[in-house]
Amino acid sequence: MKLRPPTLLIKNYYKRCYSHRFTQLPQERRIRLSGVLMMGAIGVSALSYYYYSILRQQQSQELSPTHFIPYKISHKIDIDPSHFLLELTPLQRQKVNLWSQMGSEHLWSVEVKQPEIMVVRSYTPLPLQVDENQRELKAIPDGSNGDGKFVLYVKQYGNGEVARWLHRLPLGHTIDVRGPFVEYELPKYEGEISRNRDFLFNDEISSTEEDKFKYQPFDIAMFTAGTGIVSALQILLTESPLRGKMHLRYSCGSVDVLGPLKPFLYQLHRYGRIDLQVLESSKESNVSKRQQKIWDQIPSPTNYLGPSNYLGPNKISSPVLALVCGPERYIADISGPRINLAQGPIGGMLKAKGWTEGNVYKLS
């Protein structure tokens, strides 16, 4: 059987279904009917375009890595002359719950644009918002995205144009934000339950009920300095937080530079979510002694073998992964320098402790 081109089939179908009917009508009626059909087609096209435009406009107001959307500075908390917190609220309420989508398996950031010099700067958002009544930070509950709000922890550096610009802006000022940008992904176990976060909302809870996981959680180690602490806090405070324990080593001038974030850190430690070591240069000015304390607290790595059946909280082994985040000099001391923003070979203290390229990642 010979197949006819689709265009010819369509043409013949049109002739059978419509043309003969038009020709059976008087010429004047054919013209009027054709005009009605044409106007109807134009109306349907216009209506379709209208709804399509609305849909595109709604989608363009959702946070996306492909375009900037406007956020306003809803709160600003000065901690000291160098550190401050910003709560950012989108002008258009967000529908997507990024905290639920990302969970603790993704370390992600957003970019803020400085329009005067056309520079963007990456910041790690925290799943927190300012309590209007208590005037303090609180975690965003499970199942909520806080309408898209998040908090940034910012330090002003001497050459940090974007941070200094942000600090000068008044409350209510609108800035452009895009994201999320995922920098690192942890293994995700499909069908696993979320970890309980009740203690974040009620600090009178003496202990949290043991979670009955499907798979055995894994521990990780994080070595952070300065504002690098926010990467650890993101996956510890988010909806469905890290299920294993984090061996957290935090170097800073003083823990007080965390301001309202400080209680969260000690709360996580008190409820067994982290094994915390804080090294303050204000209390120990000798660099060699501080490095020795870090060295003494570096755990040995454990091979990651993938998901296995849950055996209980006391069966968790040593960390399977080490993440390093902080100033370049700190990263170099802990895990070897990055080279041209690439990972570079593993060195420093972690290499001496038996860690390798396969289980260490240097965050930007």
UniProtKB/TrEMBL annotation:
Pfam families: FAD_binding_6
Transmembrane regions listed in the UniProt entry: 31-52
Domain annotation FAD-binding FR-type: ranges: 66-187
Protein name: FAD-binding FR-type domain-containing protein
Subcellular location(s) per record: Membrane
A GO MF label: oxidoreductase activity
Binding site for FAD: R121, Y123, K155, V162
PROSITE patterns per UniProt: FAD_FR
Gene Ontology cellular component list: membrane; mitochondrion
